[in-house]
Amino acid sequence: MRMVSYRDGSDTRGGVLLDDAVFDLEGLLKAAGALPVSSVRDFLSLHGNEIEAFSIGVAGLVERNPSTRVGPRTEVRLTTPVPDPAKVLCVGLNYRDHVAETGRALPEYPDVFVKFAATLVGPEDGIQGADVSANLDFEGEVAAVIGRAARHVPEEEALGYVAGLAPLNDISARDLQHRGTQWTAGKTVDRSTPWGPAFVTLDEIGDPQALELVTRVNGVEMQHSNTRHQIFPIARIVSYLSSFLTLEPGDVIATGTPQGIGAKRTPPIWLKPGDTVEIDVERVGVLSNQVA
Predict the structure, then answer these.
(1) Residue 191 scores a pLDDT above 90
(2) What's the CA gap between 280 and 155, in Å, rounded?
(3) d(CA 166, CA 195)
């Protein structure tokens, strides 16, 4: 199942993307006899334990309830899949080749930093930041969305707390990032980090550690790797984070980028207004945004 959020006038509502059409989440829940909610985050809070069963049955619900159809994908404006996450947690230096190109030692534990909800934009939005940074860089990543509250979760159980995966572009303002010892300034430029268009539930993906990840800028491949090369697999990241904080339904975890970022190329490649960046994750989808 591909879960989305979409604009409905001045409101934002949860939906399901099926056969290139968007269907209203609240309507589908009513049809299923489940407690109806209109937002994806509320859906995860109330029904996160049942997401696989809902995913398996959603095609039948859509067929029996055509009135839940909002419209074709091309005519519905999508926002980020979870517009209001409580936390946006990011892991740096999680691919061996990327660690090598930065010249650092392999980390013993995940290198964690944070973004804010105001940093995130959806698949229909422009990437902001070119007006405040001359060194705007791309980082193709796989994001995990938490489906139910997790605290002190063993690694072998951690994927059971993941609702799904989505493409994410961890846009980084390198000049701001390297002005000090902390990364916050370079990682939290307003409306700079796109993700989506949907998060895909794990029952449709299979092994999350066997996904091809490709980043293209203006159609030219810049990054190409596979999640099997992650130093810390997604289950270990979820387990580690849950060891010191409570992960909540709708939280977003960016799991790191592979080799090929613009900053480490000769000469460096910086994004400029009008550039199109695509993040392509196997069995998950393609995220495409233009630099504003």
Answers:
(1) yes
(2) 27
(3) 7
Cα 64 to the chain's mean position, in Å? 31
What letter represents residue 154's amino acid? P
CA distances from 216 to 85, 126, 277, 281 (A): 27, 16, 6, 12
Instruction: Please report how many Cα atoms fall inside a 13 Å half-sphere around the Cα of residue 49, on the Cβ side.
Output: 4
Calculate the alpha carbon distances from 229 to 209, 211, 241, 279 in Å: 8, 10, 20, 17
CA distance 2 to 100: 35
The phi-psi region of residue 174 (left if phi > 0; otherwise alpha if psi is between -120 and 50; otherwise beta) is: alpha
Those residues whose C-beta lies under 8 Å from the C-beta of residue 212, and which sit 6 or more positions away, are 224, 225, 226, 280, 281, 282
Residue 158 has which token pair?
């951690």
Pairing of strands 120-121, 193-194: parallel
- The DSSP bridge pattern shows strands 276-281 and 252-254 to be unpaired
3-state secondary structure (DSSP) of residue 17? strand
| Count of all residues that appear for the chain in the document | 292
Structure tokens at 162: 């993941």
- Rounded Cα–Cα distance for residues 178 and 176 (Å): 6
Structure tokens at 268: 């460096």
Measured CA to CA, the distance from residue 273 to residue 128 in angstroms comes to 9
* Residue pair 215/277 in contact by the 8 Å Cβ criterion: yes
Instruction: Report residue 238: phi and psi, to 5°.
Output: -60, -45
Note if the bond before 267 is cis, omega within 30 degrees. yes
CB 154 within 8 A of CB 184: no
Q: Are 103 and 96 in contact (CB under 8 A)?
A: no
**pLDDT value at residue 180:** 87
Q: What is the pLDDT of residues 229-266, one digit of tens each?
A: 999 999 999 999 999 999 999 999 999 999 999 999 99
